User: Fold these one by one.
Assistant:
Number 1:
Amino acid sequence: MGSFGASRTLLGPHELAVLEDAVRGRRVRIARRGATVLGIEATHAGRRVDLADGYRDVAELEARPSSRFAVMAPFANRIADARYAFDDHGYDLAPGVAGAERAARHGFVRGVDFALDELGADAASAWARFATGAIRPEAHPGYPFALDLDLRYVLDAAGLALEATLRNVGDTAAPCFFGWHPYFRLGDTPIETWELAIPAATLVRTDAEFIPLPGTAAHAPMDEAGALDFRRAHAIGALELNHGYAGLARDADGRARTRLRDPASGLAIAVWQERGVMLAFTADTVSRDVRRSVALEPMESWSDAFNRPDCADAIRLEPGAERRFRCGVEILTP
């Protein structure tokens, strides 16, 4: 019997894909609703731990509080005032909404039931492929573009990898990019004691609404970041993180790794991405379990990228073209 397996199950009315690694004692559960990871179980010190602080039940999966493990497309995090311009046209993602109620966050697919198009396993891995064509001109005010989104989750000996493919199936160029919003727990020790390392050259400066400042003002050299400089791993302590990190240094295999470790147990993870920005969030404003997990969000481009000239090339997708973004989490059990 092989190490890896893949199967289907249900959480209430919602179908899940289950990927398993029997040899290493690991299991990943992913819901079709939003293609959302619900659990990443690993074996550590002879017991099962869930590294994912995901949705706990049907009610949370349907209400989506705090966007836990959200797949973010066609944009990640925020668009300032829910407005942007593209190819000399202005767009409003929240027409008819005024004042503080205006918001555009985390894209359009968190509540979509993806198709589970493929589920399988072999001697080296288990995988599930999800797909949706929900991003269409008539579906979302202020976004008259047509995209297909495919997601492939792969559980292998290293951990869980995610490959996202955005494909422009419309007749005009489209602004788009991908992000992932996972929350991780390393057991029951306080996050203040966990050690974080982010291989970034730049801290992203933002305004009070967490919108990056215009132009070069958004780029703070890491030498000026003080306690927010995580180029060398150090404890999170009392810091309240909701910060983007850019200029990520990549290892020899082309992956930039953000590392989180519990020194008390030695349990650790490395969230990797091939390019883009890392956003670290210590869950100070979530609706439950405040500061009980840390969100480490690999993003293909910046928050408010639709409004940044320095991101224009990275987010532009021509008709018929497709773009891939790869990220994932490596499980580092001692």
Note: The longest strand covers residues 125-135.
Number 2:
Amino acid sequence: MEYNIEKFKTGLLDLGIELTENQIDLFLTYYEMLIEKNKVMNLTAITEFDEVIEKHFLDSLSLIKVKDLHNRTNFLDLGTGAGFPGIPLKIAFPELNITLMDSLNKRILFLQDVINELGLMDIEAVHGRAEEAARNKKYREKYDLCVSRAVANISTLSEYCLPFVKVGGEFISYKSGNIDEELDAAKKGIKILGGTITDVHKFDLGENKQGRSFVIIDKNQSTPKTYPRKAGTPSKNPL
């Protein structure tokens, strides 16, 4: 199938990202697999090509605005869903060493198919809930960087994500809308978890000028063993 990729190329240019023809082909194959699988399971409500390009692919890649991704970073994408932002970041920056983690095994099986079909290396798809996986020595405080596009308040996300980050590493949350109050409410909890909000980078995405933010949290000290709390507690009763 033929696609008009001018909008994609313009968006990449805006981000300062150069892709080879082969990398662009990988994005198109990923798009086709996503749409095909979406017919039988709910992966995304966004299916129109230009919208997927803007709201999934370019949004995922916009991390480059706040993080140098050309180094071999050990990287966790928590609550990856259909593979965002991890798969786009892996295609664009092959040197990243990425773990995709999601609580729904059907999504993980789809992501494994994508990894195999695209021939991606140094990337794994792991089925696990954050509350349990963060207590596993294999994953706890093992990552230089944890990212998440999951929809939850920053306090809840921090409780899920910071236990995976090694001291000296970072948690970066993709957010939309006005987050100032949310950040103020989260500062105390983030400190308890061993982190500090060091930057909030606000920007507009795409021709529709959607308001987006990156919340950057440095991990200064080890997360106490009591966190994350049992399933459901971080969202019902944020720190």
Note: The mean pLDDT is 95.
Number 3:
Amino acid sequence: MNKTVIVTGAAKGIGRAIAKDFAYAGYNVCINYNTSEEAAKELCEALAKNGCSVIIYKADITKREEVDKMVDYVIGTFGKVDVLVNNAGISEYKLFIDITQEEIQRMLNVNILGVFNTTQSVLKKSMLPRKDGTIINISSIWGMVGASLEVAYSTSKAAIIGMSKALAKELAPSNITVNVVAPGAISTDMLGALSKDDLNVLKEEIPLGKIGTVEDVAASVKFLASYEARYITGQVISPNGGLVI
């Protein structure tokens, strides 16, 4: 039986690349989305035409009932969940004193509570009863070292790292691994707030001299889900071109 993966926020950017990698590797893939329905449908149709086993599911990961229904649907369709990739996330780029309570709360809800919801649901419904599974959480280098003008985002991504390390210890006796991929500067919509000059300055700060691609991140995720990574848990892999060492 093929393995099954749920990728949250998989319609665009890094999540899209992760979903494609797993689909072409022979996994059953659930493409989760919340607002990007057109992009999710387009991805699903394109992968299906290439013989991949894919479904899409709309769920707001901040709402536990929606998450539970999604996980039930995936298990009903494919029988189990082997891999969970918590990719969905949002960011804000502004001065700390200017960010509103509503913006902070929304970011914490999506970036932290959403991960708790999906992880708890998958663990209870599939991984713990089978004593097998892989959880990969997408953080950021700013969760490792912090970023000016992204205090709330850095806070939420640092929390993901702490959660993952603690959960890895808790779940290891059940043969479930938990790891983190913390990307550096990656060419996605999240870099849209930077000007061309800012991007050039950023490239100069990166030892490898270039902005990363979504495929660079997806490769790290797929490795952590592979048999070769079976003895790796509680770790942070950071594809960042040497920006943070």
Note: The CA atoms of residues 2 and 27 lie 6 Å apart.
Number 4:
Amino acid sequence: MQAIHAIETPVIETQGLTKKFDKFVAVNKLNLSINEGEIFGLLGPNGAGKTTTLSMLATLLPPSGGSARVNGFDVSREASRVRKSIGFVFQDPSSDDLLTGRENLYLHSLMYGVDMRAAQKKIDAALELVDLTERQNERVKKYSGGMRRRLELARGLLHEPRILFLDEPTLGLDPQTREHLWKYIKRLSTEKKVTIIITTHYMEEADALCDRVAIIDRGKVVALDSPANLKKGLGGDVVYLSFRKPNKPNLAAVKKLRCVRNVKREGDRVTLSCDYAASQLQNILKAIGKVESVESRSPTLNDVFLHFTGKEIRDDDGDAEGGYHERMMHSGNR
């Protein structure tokens, strides 16, 4: 008898989701399907459309077109039900500096209508989860940046949301604190079965945390898969070759090599996707001509981003999407 497999219903689903600010298209016909318990990453530079996407899913911005359902509820028609289903940790800290950590969580429990008979136990559990029990009675203004982010995680979980949005959760933190915060995010997914959608422009963060990643460039998804599959899809190793004028790379010759899968040139640098780079390096150098420097390594998500967008991830497009909070006041549903 053939086994019958249940069809998994997405916790978040978008179809053609679009957001325009006047003539600028911040999110362009986005199609996503995210399952329960998944850590899903939106990866791209500032201005790519990541924060705008989260804002629409959290009902903070009305879509200009398309549709989105969060926990089965339509973000346009059932906004209050969506908000009860989600937690949101914003880029900018929003805890009250003059209150203690515990007081901040208690205030949040009142705002979300958490049963007061259960609130204290939930606060205790949230503080324990993020290792702030011993510092709970200190004012937040004495907290370090990492402690504040952990408190915001605890606050976002206090009303037991099914879905948690994390917008650049480790922005501005030092590498050690960032890795500690990754540990808490993973625990939320594995222990609490929370579906987590995280925006980031840190490649190593997406690689370490996410089950799947959508690479977004100028409002569009240009690639979507697990980090491992995205890197595997590039094929082989990555070889960087730098040139100094008047030397010119012989791209036609190197493209004829059987080991070379892909060739891209940016200014004075050529990037190759190559099988067995270590053993083929002499053949590559002989074909391409005199070089200034050579670097060879396994593919990274940054290489994936470069492959699909033709550029490295960076922050120079920040003004394109930045300032969306101000636009919210007068954008309307265009």
Note: The first helix runs from residue 50 to 57.
